[in-house]
Amino acid sequence: MGLFSAMARIAFKHTSLQLESAVKPADFGRALADVFSHRTIQERDPDIATLDVLWRSSRDPYIENHPGWAVINAKHEGLLVSVFTTSRDDRVDSYALVEEGRGALVWLLGYLRIYRKPIERLSLGGGPVFAPELELRERYERARELLAWLSREARGRPIFLHGLPLDSPFREILQSRHHRFWVMPQGRRQVHFSLDLPESVAAFYAGLGYKTRKSIRYSVRKLEKEFEGRVSLKTFSNRDDVPNFLDDAMIISQKTHQYRLLKLGLRDREKLHNQFCEMTEHGWWHGYILYCNEKPVAFIWGYRLSKVFYYWDIGYDPQWHTWSVGTVALVKLIEHLITTKDPPRRLDLLYGELEYKKRVANHSRYDENLYLFPKSIRMFFLSGSLWLVNTITDKAGSILDRYNLRARVIRFLRRRATDD
Predict the structure, then answer these.
(1) Which one in 95, 97, 369, 381 has a CA-CA gap of 20 to 30 Å to 71?
(2) Mean pLDDT of the 82-91 span
(3) Given 316, 344, 372, which residue is the final one in a domain?
(4) Same-domain pairing of 203 and 156
(5) Are 149 and 113 in a shared domain?
């Protein structure tokens, strides 16, 4: 019996979206779990409500695993989302959302992108989601089923695993090498920081280290004194707010080293507008801009899902870096989240092991990005060249660290990219 037919007999109270039928029949088989199944999933799919309940019950919910958000995000990225589920006694006890479509392999020599190759790939963020009651042995069983399905579904294509926790059963199975892939790290392991928000702003500052608290308060007072209090963080959260946010935020983004050097940042206005507007309809997207004397100097945007705010992107005008406007914007965001009506429980600072995140966070875990290359001659040369560039980058980074030069090189490249 397939999962989809079994789920018709289950009554779920959480129905935040209108529901439609599945668009693709399930391809299932019987294994260690009672039933496992996979199929494509769309925005108005009936199973989204089911998966949402499981996502909310997970200990550290990753945004990429939120079914409603993932489907809408994939739509704007031109990707297809498939859901892999396992169930027992007609009840879903684990799932994974897998994107399928165009992506790119990027060869980075430090900060410099030396080559970009468009590819067809599968991608999975954060690993599978497990029901809280599953024992460790059962989680390993379901992770093995997921890997077996990915082996069949890949059909010669690479699989990108983004933000995979180091303690994930799925990652540990990959390390066993009892599978059909070459496993290739993409970049270094990084700390994933988050902040469990306290009940008051005073408690937030009290929880900071002495030097951090002193530095942050000095930066805020210095900026407010210079502009006689005309420093404010403006909130954008409705559909009508999106154009105004993009007007000011994109100007800032175009000045940043992320935009000029790494080809990141706010680039495609029409795409961003459509995506942000659709996300606001669910109450998820929120944007913030820091103004000094009515001049936009820094922006932040992210998503509020359930009791977590996911801090997706930040940018600041490099001409204002001596004023620490990025830090001020983040602190004012934290103050806003704490004092807002129905405040979130956690601020997830997402990916990137950056010092400013470490200073305000009170929780951390390790994540890594991995590529799974199916074992073939073509993938051997593709993965080998990527390994070579990664190795050179790591060796160069080690040499720079030995002589305390990494930070200087990074500052030089950033200044060079942002000089007008």
Answers:
(1) 369
(2) 87
(3) 344
(4) no
(5) yes
